Amino acid sequence: MEIWINPACSKCRSALTLLDAEGAGYTVRHYLEDVPSEDEIRTVLGRLGLEPWDITRTQEADAKELGLEDWPRDEEARDRWIAALSAHPRLIQRPIITADDGSAVVGRTEEAVREAMARADG
Fold it and tell me: What family does the entry list (predicted)?
């Protein structure tokens, strides 16, 4: 498993605490420093089964500056959203956990983190 985190995020710290408590094996990616490429974001979106606007933190200052609220949410705009996430990684919802079975979850709840662990063990 790999978990994309921002150490300043309480949800990320909670997810790490749970993973550690359960003895789960994982790799940490500080995605604000090791910024995902557009291709990596596309891959993660496929694993999540989500669209880029589904994992965008639209209340962030960067989002307001870019005017994301007004961007279309359709196939034509998809690459524009992905480019914005790669250029402004703070916009990416966190933590994102990629499981060994090829799936991924946004681990904002204990249930989601446990789901990723179950997939990794499966």
Answer: Belongs to the ArsC family.
Kindly report the pTM of this predicted structure.
0.93
* d(C-alpha 56, C-alpha 80), whole Å: 12
- Domain residues for the domain of 64 are 2-121
> How would DSSP label each residue in 24-80?
---EEEETTTSPPPHHHHHHHHHHHT--GGGGB-TTSHHHHHHTGGGS--SGGGHHH
With residue 19 as reference, give the H or E element that holds it: helix 10-21
Q: Which two tokens stand for residue 43?
A: 């891959």
Percent of the chain with pLDDT over 90: 93
Per the document, the length of the chain is 122
Tens digits of residue pLDDT in 32-55: 999 999 999 999 999 999 999 999
How many domains does the chain contain in total? 1
